[in-house]
TrEMBL record:
Keywords: Cell cycle, Cell division, GTP-binding, Magnesium, Metal-binding, Nucleotide-binding, Septation. The lineage of its organism: Bacteria, Pseudomonadati, Pseudomonadota, Gammaproteobacteria, Alteromonadales. Transmembrane segments: none annotated. Residues 22-196 form the EngB-type G domain. Belongs to the TRAFAC class TrmE-Era-EngA-EngB-Septin-like GTPase superfamily. EngB GTPase family. Necessary for normal cell division and for the maintenance of normal septation. This is Probable GTP-binding protein EngB.
Length: 196
């Protein structure tokens, strides 16, 4: 499996419009502006694959990318952006919740968090939910190029410790789309999930 083979399949406003729920999916989730689109572009080696948001909170659709037959990457709507009307926020949260709860083909969750402020309430909710559902998690601590090597390691350790209490299959990796830090490690984990 090569993530660089990813091609855009469709954008869906809700889970009913997604491709048939067969095969394997790895989903990407994170607060708006966490660096999700950039990470998808980095991991697939395709600059234009996911649109990098000029206005945070604009990605409201579930975007589907096919990597191989019945192997998909799912770009879930970003959450937690303050300047969005409550009604809209509720709609996205609902789409996100529905997807996570109902999608049988979901076999791994990549959670993107800015390394400078990880583990916000909604991040924790998501990771806790994955842990309760026995879904493996890869936590990517994004934009790590913004921290010194020392601070980076300290942040990774802090997050690892906090998540270890959940006793679940959770990996934590410092990541930078700018420098490709952690891209190789993330690629191995995601391809491993997709290859099942
Ligand atoms: P999304 O809303 O989660 O999809 O986030 P985006 O990928 O659109 O990125 C949000 C902002 O963070 C953009 O201005 C990106 O250029 C910036 N960004 C994303 N990844 C990195 C990174 O690895 N390093 C740095 N320095 N900036 C990044």
């Amino acid at each position: 499996i090569h993530l660089s083979k990813a091609t855009f399949t469709l954008s869906a406003p809700d889970i009913r419009r997604l491709p048939e729920d067969t095969g394997i999916e790895v989903a990407f989730a994170g607060r708006s502006n966490a660096g999700k689109s950039s990470a998808l572009n980095t991991l697939t080696n395709q600059n234009g694959l996911a649109r990098i948001s000029k206005t945070p909170g604009r990605t409201q659709l579930i975007n589907v990318f096919e990597v191989a037959e019945n192997k998909r990457l799912i770009d879930l709507p970003g959450y937690g952006f303050a300047k969005v009307p409550l009604e809209m926020k509720k709609k996205w949260q609902k789409a996100l919740g529905e997807y996570l709860e109902k999608r049988d083909s979901l076999k791994g969750l990549v959670v993107l968090m800015d390394i400078r402020h990880p583990l916000k309430d909604l991040d924790m909710d998501l990771i806790q939910w994955a842990a309760d559902s026995d879904l493996p998690v890869l936590a990517l601590l994004t934009k790590c190029d913004k921290l010194s090597q020392g601070k980076r390691s300290a942040e990774v350790l802090k997050v690892k410790k906090a998540l270890a209490t959940l006793n679940a299959d959770i990996r934590v990796q410092a990541f930078s789309s700018l420098k490709r830090t952690g891209a190789e490690q993330a690629d191995v984990v995601i391809c491993d999930w997709l290859a099942q």
